[in-house]
Amino acid sequence: MSTRPIAQESTRPRTIHLFVRGAAGATAALVLTSCATLSSGDGERDNVPEDVSTTITDEPVELTLAYTDDPPSIELVEGFTDQHPNVDIELQQTPFTDYVKTVTLSMSSDDPPDMAQYNPGAMRSLIPSGHVMDLEPYVEAYGWEESFPEASLEPLRADEDATRFGTGSLYAVPGALSMLGVFYNRELLAEAGVDEPPATFDEFEDALAAVDEEGIAPFSVGGLEVGGFQVWNALLNTFGDDQAYRDWVHGAPDSTIETDGARTATEALTRWVEAGYVPEDANATSDDDAKAAFANGESAFLVTGNWAAFELEEALGEDAGFFLLPGEDPDQVPMTSGSSVSYTVSSATEHPDVAAAFLDYLSSPEAAQIQLDTGFMPVDTDVSTGEGGVLEEINSVYGTAAEQDGIVPFPDFSTPGMIDQLTPGVQGLIAGSTDEETFLSDLQAEWDRVHG
User: Fold this and answer.
1) Nearest to 89 by CA among 98, 79, 99
2) Do domains 17-178+340-385 and 179-338+395-451 have the same CATH topology?
3) N or C: which end of the chain has fewer CB within 10 A?
């Protein structure tokens, strides 16, 4: 995986070609400019557009958008083309397992899609070769640093060589947001005498002990896939130094995951395993089965992302709650790993201003409602779900964390192969076949292979 924090169950097993068309007519005037695509002296494209405009043509425009996750791409395209009915956007979907290879080849071809869903693995070759657009001119033209949360833009920045992320030019913007946290069952916690969500890590461990003593399973964990990794990820958010962690994920020189905070997080996971809080069959349990067990009231807690909220609220109703794994200090800045469905633009598109207008639309109130309706947090974090319940809790928690710069990337974003170390590594911790130091040193060895 990637942690696949967005719509991980919805990928379709085939490529889809969907044309989204609106009625004839338009309201905007023409001020289109072309993106410079001539080769520079070293054979790379000039990927910085000149003379950008925020005005959209009323002439017919056809664009293509390559993507892998299902919602909310279709709905967002429909929302945009409803506002600009002269624009047709062809959607081309590829299964997640093939996406990095497919989008790398298609975006570097002679006939690339105009836009594509962002993937950091693909960007490591597409950015240096100039095949994706440097969006900085549009950042200034549209004021994206004000309309998009900074925490959502940071992972989408990269230097010219794409060796370090989180800094440099912007190459994509988010179309929907997600984050990792802890779902809990209010009824089961009340049975164990826990009346409020824990405010500190010690209180959380007390809650684990209380539900365990009551004969209630503390966790449902899908260790067969990424559920175990997500538990460790949440612990890392709680105990890790946020700047050192960001540097490691973004590939800053001399960064390391072998820190005191990461050791404390890893030791906490193994302590939970030894206490029996993590089910013995976790490594044989899929993410879907772990989610189903929690939804059926078989455990008190489930560590996963907001993408599970609709299903869990439908199953548990008002008993479903959500919080971030708390820190040692109740006043500690809330930290959580978050991500987004994001979109980048080809430097070869003939309609850069129209493509950029679609990106800008993603931060609009209209797009926010679509993002909410398809089960994601809106890019505009000030928008309320208006429904209360766990969805409102999640949106509020994200907004608080974002305001305090508490949204950090997922650890598998650090290298294309990191997920292949993380998932089996955590499985080893759960099985007792891997110790904490070996687990962290294996992660660092993968990091050094790419960044060292």
Assistant:
1) 79
2) yes
3) C
**HEC readout, 330-346:** CCCCCCEEEEEEEEEEE
Q: How far is CA 204 from CA 111, 330, 337, in A?
A: 53, 12, 19
DSSP string, 344-397: EEBTT-S-HHHHHHHHHHTTSHHHHHHHHHTTSB-SSTT---SS-HHHHHHHHH
pLDDT surpasses 50 at 339? yes
C-alpha 133/C-alpha 352 separation (Å) is 9
- Residue in the block written with tokens 């797009």: 367
Tell me the angle at which helices 419-431 and 260-275 cross, rounded to the nearest 10 degrees.
40
CATH fold of the domain at 179-338+395-451: D-Maltodextrin-Binding Protein; domain 2 (3.40.190)
- Written as six digits, the tokens of 122 are 């693909």
DSSP designation for 35: P
- Non-local CB neighbours of 134 within 8 Å, separated by 6+ positions: 47, 48, 49, 169, 170, 171
**CB 436, CB 263: distance < 8 Å:** yes
pLDDT in tens, 63-102: 999 998 766 889 999 999 999 999 999 999 988 778 889 9
Pairing of strands 61-67, 173-185: unpaired
DSSP 326: P
8 A C-beta contact, residue 112 and residue 133: no
Q: Are 321 and 390 in contact (CB under 8 A)?
A: yes
> Which residue is listed with tokens 């009551």?
214
User: Which residues have C-beta within 8 Å of that of residue 397, sequence separation ≥ 6?
Assistant: 179, 181, 322, 323, 324, 334, 336
Instruction: Compute the average pLDDT of residues 115-120.
Output: 94
Name the nearest CA neighbour of 422 among 435, 440, 436: 440
Q: Could you tell me the residue ranges of all domains in the chain?
A: 17-178+340-385, 179-338+395-451
Structure tokens at 173: 């913007």
Top pLDDT among 25 and 188 is at 188
Instruction: Write the CA distances from 301 to 209, 271, 287, integer angstroms.
Output: 12, 17, 14
Q: Which fold does the domain 17-178+340-385 belong to in CATH?
A: D-Maltodextrin-Binding Protein; domain 2 (3.40.190)
